[in-house]
Amino acid sequence: MGLFDKFRKKEAAADAEPRVQIYDPDTHSLSTIPARELAPGMVRAHVTGIDGDCWIDPSKLKQSEYRHPPFDEEVRKYLREIKDTLDEVYSLTLDEWEDGFRRDTTAEREIAIWLHIAEKYRECTSGKQLNLAEKQDVFKIVLSCANNPRDQVLTVAGVTTLSRPEAEEIVETFYRKDQ
User: Fold this and answer.
1) Is 68 inside any structural domain?
2) Of 63, 87, 147, 167, which residue is the least packed, with the fewest Cβ within 10 Å?
3) CB-based contacts of 136: which residues, under 8 Å, 6+ apart?
4) pTM of the model
């Protein structure tokens, strides 16, 4: 095989590699990178005017205006459940949780997603001797599962303390249908 043939084979392999779109809300620009290069914490999103999903750095997102009135006590009960479960790894006041959900277009759906995140976090940490850093990694994985395609979860979760098999077990737990 000649040098030219080796180059074409390498180029063809690069073309076959999964690629993702990255959207920068500050510049409104779109770029494409190999999926394996996604930075930890990136989230998948649908941006109006762009075909298909893209990935965004959540720190670059801006808060929207309120879309819902203050929640009644029945809804706040669910927010308390989320807060109580996740407080050690994602500490927000009850008012901050409510504030965020009131700004969501689909508040009911988002609350349901966070209830699922809290449930799976509890399931993955209950009865285990985990230190805070390990609990934070469990949360990162569960949150990444909720926001990303399954095949990208561990790429963007940014896990530092758990082994690959431990992380994969958490992903399996998240996607397992409750019996």
Assistant:
1) no
2) 63
3) 89, 161
4) 0.77
